[in-house]
Amino acid sequence: MFQTFDDLSDPSCGAPHAALLRKELERRGLDGFLIPRADAHQGEYVPPHDCRLQWLTGFTGSAGTAAVLGEEAAIFVDGRYTIQVREQVDMTVFPAQHLVNEPVSDWLAARLKPGQKLGIDAMLHTVREVRRLKTVCEEAGAELVALEDNPVDAVWEDRPQPPLGQVALYPDELAGKAASDKIAEIQAGLSDKKADACVLTQPDSIAWLFNIRGNDVSHTPLPLSFATVPAEGKPSLYIDGRKLSNSVRDVLSGLTELGEPGAFKGGLETLGKAGARVLIDPALAGIGIADAITGAGGTLIEAQDPVLLPKAVKNPVELKGARAAHLRDAAAYVNFLCWFDEEAPKGELDEIGAAVRLEEFRQATGVLKDISFETISGAGPNGAICHYRVSWKSNLKIPLGKPYLIDSGAQYDDGTTDITRTLAVGEMSAEMKRHYTLVLKGHIAISTAKFPEGTTGAQLDTLARIDLWKAGLDFDHGTGHGVGAYLSVHEGPQRIAKTGTVPLKPGMILSNEPGYYPAGEYGIRLENLEIVTEAREIEGGERPMLGFETITLVPFDLRLVEVALLTQSERDWLNRYHERVRWEVGPLVGARERIWLEHATRAV
Predict the structure, then answer these.
(1) Is the pTM of this model over 0.90?
(2) What is 428-445 written as a DSSP string?
């Protein structure tokens, strides 16, 4: 099993750990400290060694920040975690704040006093974030102190060791482009920007650029590392040498200068001393990186990580792999759904049992590398927790009469999958069917969207919500995120969300996952992955339009569809989609599953 179900959260840790931290801050002459979920790579996926927020508060979500002052503290999370945080964190020690409605900066502005010193770890806070924090401190008459070491680490007993996952080469026949060609393209872009070099902090950018994969974080094949790429000459890759076999080292040595992570700061200072103009992404690079360059005499060029967009726009080989991975995954999923429909009505199946069985069906493909994230298996009220993680403690039996939400994905060497289905178990109420169908209408609206070049995800996001809005409903998460090619299941810069400001381009892969979550009752989410297609002429139109190609091929549960709420075009889309699922997936499953599939994809 790639997933475990141990309860990783302990709300009782909040008070003693906060006390330890405050004592250490007092020793250092600090009046407060910020503890983000991020590590030095600003990634969503953090190894146990860097889970400082979890150690301090008990919170296990993928995004959040804690602020600790002398007499007061708080934890800040977004809308995905408003329920989860109250279950995992002692609210008397770390009261929960909504990251959007009351951001950390506002909370600090109301509490910092003149002469106080607020500490941060220089590698865990980005250049852009530090600018906001400095402004808050200056307006309060306080001082922001960037530290080279972290006070949490000084008091964290039994801290796990840094990961040493072995690095593997990712073959060109799957990558679609040689690493040397990718490096040359990035270098050409640096010359256009008049930059002498760039700094890469994102492990997935580094993995994509050098055609390598790793095993340093759960469920995502990332090698934790840093890199610098000059406009001319060899890049430098800073990675623990213990992760490299001789054969991998030989190949990488032909592409890059290899150095240990401890040499990274020295490499930045060398660039600075040479007077280099160095490109950094202010939204991703820690302030410690910027300070090392400018402190040695270098100049910063602030721009987006130059690898993000090339990585997001998949080449034909990557797209072919994604389609193959999704078809394979669909067959495993249909096997699961057929089994689920037999077992769930018996009333004994629980959240863990369902998650385990789905992983077993994927394992049966013989090529599963990992799951792409911990399966969200939410029965009844647990389904209303957007990023719910089932544990032995929270595990519920899947009840009759309520929808069951399962959000899962797989890592295959030719692609990364992510799919959510909401399933009927027993008789569904009219309200449940109405909510499901409103979510389905939003899903169809995204899938069928046509839009001109330059359109951003923010412009499309409303399409997924409009029918919910008309009913006075909404969901508190983005509609879609980017997905990598055997990389991160959450990939930027593309996204369909209110904050999605990057224009969508052909070849990008995004999720399409509107939802609705009545707290304490159940959750509904419907997710497929979509490829942005090339602009095409529309009959009678004046300009070509981009669109989406759906690559997830799994039935929607028709028992939850209120057909009368669908327009004729929505009904046509659903029937065409199910016909495609039947024809493409049917030959890949057994006779019993084909019979199930015929019924599950019947026309409505």
Answers:
(1) yes
(2) PPHHHHHHHHHHHHHHHH
Nearest to 447 by CA among 508, 383, 513: 513
Q: In the block, which residue shows the tokens 């403690």?
A: 393
For residues 476-497, give the mean pLDDT. Answer: 97
Name the token pair of 425: 């178990």
Quick check: bond before 493 cis, omega within 30? yes
Residues of the chain with CATH 3.90.230.10: 313-600
For 519, other C-beta atoms within 10 Å of its C-beta total 11
Residue ranges, comma separated, of all CATH 3.40.350.10 domains in the chain are 11-155, 168-306
CA distance 499 to 583: 37
Q: How far apart are the C-alpha atoms of 379 and 422, rounded to whole Å?
A: 10
Please count the residues of the chain. 604
Distance (Å) of CA 95 to CA 46, 55, 281: 24, 16, 32
CATH topology for 313-600? Creatine Amidinohydrolase (3.90.230)
Q: How do residues 270-321 score in pLDDT, each as one tens digit?
A: 999 999 999 999 999 999 999 999 999 999 999 999 999 999 999 999 999 9
Q: 11-155 maps to which CATH number?
A: 3.40.350.10
Cβ neighbours of residue 58 under 8 Å, at least 6 residues apart? 9, 10, 11, 12, 13, 14, 88, 89, 90
Contacts of 143 (CB under 8 A, 6+ apart): 115, 116, 117, 118, 137
| 140: helix, strand or coil | helix
3-class secondary-structure state, position 350? strand
Say if CB 89 and CB 97 are below 8 A apart: no
**CATH fold of 168-306:** Creatine Amidinohydrolase; Chain A, domain 1 (3.40.350)
